[in-house]
Fold this protein.
Amino acid sequence: MAAPAGAGAVIAAAERGRWLWPVLAAALGLWTAGVSALEVYTPKEIYVANGTQGKLMCTFKSVNTTSKLTSVTWSFQPEGTDTTMSFFYYSQGQGFPGDDPPFKNRIRWAGDLSKKDASINIENMQSIHNGTYICDVKNPPDIVTKPGHIQLYVVEKGPSHIRTARPLWRTSQ
C-alpha cells in the first residue's frame, strides 16, 4: 500500500528543513565575517582643577587596524541637562573643533589612532565644563556597542601641596 501523497510532502519538507538551517547559518557567518564589536574605554569620572588643562582619556579595542575611515566624535552633556552637543571630530589625521563658546579654542587632539588612543585635552577648564563627556569611535567595519562616558568635575585650586576635590557648585563646609 502506497503512502498518501500528503505524507510524502511532509517528509520532503522535513528533509529540506534539515539542510536549510545550516546553509542559512553559514551564509550569516560569511556576511558578518570581519565585523566585531569595538570596545571604548574611559575613566568613569575625573576631577580637574579650575583654570588648568584637563586630559580626557579615551582608548579603544578593535580587531581591525585603524585606517583613513577611523573617526572619533567627542560630545558633551552639560550637568543638569538632557541636551548633548558634539564639540570635536577627528578624521584622516585632522581635528575639527567646534566653535561653541564653552570649547572654542580650547580643544587639542592628544590621541594616536595607530595606538588606539582617542584622547583630547581641554585648556583652561571652568565650571561651565562640568558634565558628561562622550567618546565615540568608529573603525569600520567594526560596530561600536557603547561609547565611553566620563563624568567631569571642575574643582577649586588649592595650595600646591593640597588640592580640594570639591566641585565648585557646592558650598564650603
The longest strand covers residues 71-78. Residues 19-33, 161-173 have pLDDT under 50 and may be disordered. Residues 50 and 126 are 5 Å apart (CA to CA).
